[in-house]
């Protein structure tokens, strides 16, 4: 069987979704861990985003990580493109629909709304990337003040973040992004394991429990960032 | 359960042929017994239509005891009607009360084109089975049933998968019109048994290929199929199918 045949069959296409999805889940662990560094300010008044700035600097400081970043973007793009293509293809499989819809009988709304939730996350990502990644990694925007720790100059991403999250509309967009991510993960986490062939009931029960925990905890930590800054729990 | 009679309004999909656009027609049926089956209620209506010189409603049916998989009505937004683990032929009118309106549609999927009224062409399923849903055996005397030892758990799981009657409710319920529950049941029941071992890899590859050619969608694990399956086939079989496909795809030389 050719590679192209394997990955373009209906099962193969789902495998691409599952593998890229699982890869993005591991990325979320790294991302949320680095983001959580801003909370150091809540326990240490002198931190002022130092821990976060150092972590953010580390994520852009070496070529190894910049190369991994390219891999990340390829993963994100593959997940998005394949997701849209699959959604369009699956929708086209029933040209004439039903007069009476099944609604949510036997299937929760979010399981049937992965395309919509994914699109909302994509819209959020565009806003998010233009807020932080583009000015810090591409345009080296002057609004990103430099800060110096032990003689080492780096971007003050923390300062930029505090500025961005003063706007309630931006906070709302971020909360909507986290909300969409939570529901997307709630289905995507366990579904991706099933797609890659896990069918042992004990393992599926464990994966389901971990998935529910992950889908609540990770988006909650993400959501706490704009909230903490907007309500002044974390300050410059 | 107390017997009662009821008057109902039926909105039934009527379509002269596969080329016809089709439309809903409304029928009033009266004095329907709560002890009738859903298909018997259609028989009563059809007898009346024939007496009136009208074309009776075409619908698939055969055994009328839930084992052949012929009946295929999408009733009030659910394949096989409101009861769990039930076929249309086993649905009884006690599920309804006097004055109810019931909307009856055919299975909807490009791969199941409507032939007439509520009858759809499900030969796509036959072609999937023909692609590999069998074991090749030499003719001769049957082997003793106990000659090949099989673990009880495996035998039970294989039997549960083999209970699939190929009615197509999974496709009808799936938002993607995916046939993965059907296919996974057929692949699983043979993959779990030693008799299925020799053709295990080529079977899954050929059956998935045929399913794709027939134009069914892919599985996104919404689990709507499992919820409406009259034989309670589990979506766990789909995970097993995926595993079988991955292993076969990566190891089969062809």
UniProtKB/TrEMBL annotation, chain A:
Keywords on record: Membrane, Transmembrane, Transmembrane helix
Keyword Transmembrane: yes
Keyword Membrane included in the entry's annotation: yes
Name of this chain's protein: Succinate dehydrogenase cytochrome b subunit
InterPro entries per the UniProt record, alphabetical: Cytochrome_b-558, SQR/QFR_C/D
Gene3D superfamilies, A to Z: Fumarate reductase/succinate dehydrogenase, transmembrane subunit
GO cellular component terms, semicolon-separated: membrane
Transmembrane segments: 21-43, 63-86, 114-134, 164-186, 206-233
UniProtKB/TrEMBL annotation, chain B:
Presence of the UniProt keyword Zinc-finger in the record: no
Swiss-Prot/TrEMBL cofactor(s): [3Fe-4S] cluster; [2Fe-2S] cluster; [4Fe-4S] cluster
One GO BP: respiratory electron transport chain
Highest taxon of source: Bacteria
Residue stretches making up the 4Fe-4S ferredoxin-type domain: 155-185
Record family assignment: Belongs to the succinate dehydrogenase/fumarate reductase iron-sulfur protein family.
Protein name, entry field: Succinate dehydrogenase/fumarate reductase iron-sulfur subunit
Species: Niastella caeni
């Amino acid at each position: 069987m050719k590679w192209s045949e394997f990955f373009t069959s209906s099962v193969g296409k789902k495998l691409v979704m599952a593998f890229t999805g699982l890869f993005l889940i591991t990325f979320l662990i790294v991302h949320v861990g680095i983001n959580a560094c801003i909370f150091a300010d809540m326990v240490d008044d002198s931190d002022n985003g130092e821990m976060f700035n150092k972590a953010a600097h580390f994520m852009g400081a070496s070529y190894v990580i910049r190369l991994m970043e390219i891999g990340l973007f390829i993963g994100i793009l593959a997940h998005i493109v394949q997701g849209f293509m699959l959604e369009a293809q699956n929708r086209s499989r029933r040209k004439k629909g039903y007069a009476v819809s099944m609604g949510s009988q036997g299937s929760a709304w979010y399981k049937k709304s992965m395309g919509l939730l994914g699109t909302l996350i994509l819209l959020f990502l565009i806003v998010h990337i233009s807020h932080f990644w583009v000015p810090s990694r591409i345009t080296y925007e002057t609004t990103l003040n430099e800060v110096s720790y032990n003689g080492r100059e780096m971007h003050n991403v923390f300062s930029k973040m505090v500025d961005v999250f003063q706007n309630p509309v931006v906070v709302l967009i971020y909360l909507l992004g986290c909300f969409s991510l939570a529901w997307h993960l709630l289905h995507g986490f366990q579904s991706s394991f099933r797609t890659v062939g896990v069918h042992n009931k004990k393992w599926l029960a464990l994966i389901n429990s971990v998935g529910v925990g992950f889908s609540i905890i990770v988006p909650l930590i993400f959501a706490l960032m704009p909230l903490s800054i907007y309500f002044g729990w974390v300050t410059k | 359960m107390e017997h009662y009679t009821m008057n109902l309004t039926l909105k039934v999909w009527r379509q002269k042929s596969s080329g016809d656009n089709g439309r809903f027609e409304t029928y009033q049926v009266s004095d329907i017994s709560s002890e009738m089956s859903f298909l018997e209620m259609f028989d009563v209506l059809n007898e009346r239509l024939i007496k009136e010189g009208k074309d009776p409603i075409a619908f698939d049916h055969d055994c009328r005891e839930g084992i052949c998989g012929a009946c295929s009505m999408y009733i009030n937004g659910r394949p096989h009607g409101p009861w769990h683990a039930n076929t249309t032929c086993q649905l009884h009118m006690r599920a309804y009360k006097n004055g109810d309106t019931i909307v009856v549609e055919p299975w909807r999927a490009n791969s199941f084109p409507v032939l007439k009224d509520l009858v759809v062409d499900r030969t796509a399923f036959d072609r999937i089975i023909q692609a590999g849903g069998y074991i090749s055996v030499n003719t001769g005397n049957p082997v003793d049933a106990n000659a090949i030892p099989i673990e009880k758990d495996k035998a039970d799981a294989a039997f549960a998968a083999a209970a699939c009657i190929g009615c197509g409710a999974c496709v009808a319920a799936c938002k993607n019109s995916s046939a993965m529950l059907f296919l996974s049941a057929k692949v699983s029941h043979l993959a779990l048994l030693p008799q299925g071992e020799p053709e295990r890899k080529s079977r899954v590859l050929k059956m998935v290929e045929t399913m794709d050619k027939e134009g069914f969608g892919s599985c996104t694990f919404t689990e709507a199929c499992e919820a409406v399956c009259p034989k309670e086939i589990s979506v766990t079989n789909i995970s097993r199918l995926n595993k079988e496909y991955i292993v076969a795809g990566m190891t089969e030389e062809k």
